[in-house]
Every structure is written in structure tokens, then in C-alpha cells.
Amino acid sequence: MKCYAIEYFIKENEKDEKISEVKLYRANKNGGTFKFASKPIYCDRDKFVEMINSREVFTLTRMVNSGLFSVSSTFNITINNLGYINSKQNSREDFLPYVEFKIK
Question: Domain total for the chain?
């Protein structure tokens, strides 16, 4: 199964409601393990929303120590009724509680 491993969201500044980019990797799942199939990919918000709307499958990745990553179970992401990447339908910001933010 092909999926994308999200490392973190990027915002221009802390008060921004929307992300500007996301750092992710294309990953392949084989049984209970994942293997990165790409170098890091930085995609802008519009491209990421396209990926969400096309029902791509995602997982989270965290660097444990130099070069070693842990990977979570797979999940889908939705866009709320206000157009934000958020599971809360009336929220006015891009936010997933399990995804780290970095400021550009």
C-alpha cells in the first residue's frame, strides 16, 4: 500500500491560521513495516489539500534519533466545512493534534 508519512506542518509565522507547507515522504507499507520511497517532499498547502481530497492515505513519522524514524498507523485526513485541515467542523485553523508545527 502506498501512503505518505507526514513529519511536520510549516507555517510562515505562529499566528497563521493556515499552513504554508508540509514535510512528508512517500512510503510503502509491506506487512507491518514502512519503507520510505522518496527523499523528503515539501508540498504547499494547495497540493496537500488535493492529496487529502483524492483520499490519499497518511501516516505520521517522528525522528527518534539520527536517521531512525518511528511510524504510526495509517489514517485519512479531512477538510472541515470551513475549508481548513481540521477534524473540528467549525474550527478556523489548520490543525491536527498529532502533527508538529515548525515556523519558517
Answer: 1
